[in-house]
Specification:
Elements lengths: L1 H23 L7 H23 E2 L2 E2 L3 H20 L8 H17 L10 H35 L13 H29 L9 H24 L3 H28 L2
Antiparallel strand pairs: 1-2
């Protein structure tokens, strides 16, 4: 069942991503619902795959590869839902291949033994994963915004630009994502201080420090937006910088503990 659901998800994600690439290049203009439907079917297959990878007889498998698949699944779902409200379908080009690769890796690397977690700790983990997922979408949005701004400055209005919402809308969406991600990251840090005995213990200190540093980056960006009117170029740089720090904390420390310690 795991093999079938994973392969179906990989194929459908790849098809949807490729078709959206053709749309962005101006090679075809099918109804938006076509790629949304293919993406939805891939998401459903990926849901089965994620469930089978995470849920083991001994508990929940939260190793690096399985969490990566879970995050990409959540990102794909959030982007699909958001595409119903705003025309951000071009995010499919980055999100769907990422989801396909992580789902495939989670399957081929095999399932690790699961562990039992208390309710409070599970809440902390879920909040962390939600925050990371939102910031993943935000950084993809920031990259699109950067390309859009550069193209407009060069008076290129075809291809990618013609299929994106106005620059102001893209900017607003980016800051909405950052606000949402910062709230979730705040809740994650607070729950960590409540439910973990020592967030600054040897095996958690890197993740904690880097997560707090990422929080400061995003908080500074939002403060600059409200106080100094920081816009797209500055927002893109700060969003990407904060994401790199958060990724190092989220995956870097976990990978070191899993593979090298």
């Amino acid at each position: 069942m795991l093999a079938l659901s994973t392969l179906v998800a990989v194929i459908l994600y790849s098809v949807a991503g490729f078709l959206q690439w053709q749309v962005m290049q101006g090679e075809s203009k099918p109804p938006r619902s076509r790629n949304q439907l293919i993406g939805l079917l891939a998401f459903i297959a990926h849901s089965i795959s994620v469930y089978l990878v995470l849920h083991q007889d001994s508990g929940i498998n939260l190793e690096v590869v399985s969490v990566g698949s879970l995050i990409s699944w959540l990102v794909a779902g959030l982007v699909l839902i958001s595409s119903l409200r705003q025309n951000i379908d071009n995010l499919f080009i980055g999100v769907f291949p990422m989801a396909a690769v992580t789902a495939l890796l989670a399957w081929v690397t095999g399932s690790e033994a699961g562990k039992m977690y208390e309710g409070g700790l599970i809440a902390h983990i879920l909040l962390s994963i939600l925050a990371y997922s939102i910031f993943t979408i935000a950084v993809l949005q920031a990259i699109l915004l950067s390309r859009q701004e550069a193209a407009l400055k060069q008076h290129h209005t075809r291809g990618l630009i013609s299929s994106l919402p106005p620059l102001q809308t893209m900017e607003r969406l980016l800051f909405e994502m950052i606000w949402t991600g910062l709230i979730l990251l705040s809740a994650s840090l607070i729950s960590g201080f409540i439910f973990l005995e020592d967030l600054f213990s040897q095996h958690l200190v890197h993740k904690t420090v880097l997560s707090i540093l990422a929080w400061l980056f995003y908080a500074a960006l939002l403060f600059g937006r409200m106080s100094f009117g920081w816009r797209s170029h500055t927002a893109v740089r700060w969003t990407i910088a904060g994401f790199i720090i958060l990724a190092l904390g989220f995956f870097g420390s976990k990978a070191v503990l899993q593979w090298f310690v």
